[in-house]
Amino acid sequence: MGWLIKCCNTDCGQETWASNIVDLIQNHCNEYGWFKCAACGSEGYIEKSFDLQEPGATWEPYLKGIIPLGEAGDTYQPFVFMVSYSPNEPPNDVWFSYYKDTRSIGGRLKLGYGPGGPPVLGIEQLIQLIKKLIERGCLDPNKIKEIINT
Prior knowledge:
The protein has helices at about 20-25, 125-135, 140-150; strands spanning about 5, 15-20, 45, 50, 60, 60-70, 75-85, 95-100, 110. It is an alpha+beta fold and about 150 residues long.
């Protein structure tokens, strides 16, 4: 499954293609996990659309970036997409997902966010996710303090 990244910079407007989830994470994100345009380096996004069970209803997220949560070299790699609902707004949702890469042992690359169940995170991975969401400005640390103090 490939990924089409569209540039947020209207002066550029280029599109970049990532061949699979590993390529997307390794070669099409900046140091904070935001998708980037290969032409100009500006932030980018991926448009998705999914038909829902309700007749005529769709879910149309804009994927703005990825936060990897796995350990380097592990076959099973949980992550979250940072999701917004417009190409120019900051993320306000996270979409839990994972990939499993067994190509090195004759298997295949599998992306999992539907059938097969959601990713499983350890407590430390959850804490790491919260920390990264704060670092990226997606989560207010004062809200976390309020929760801890209640």
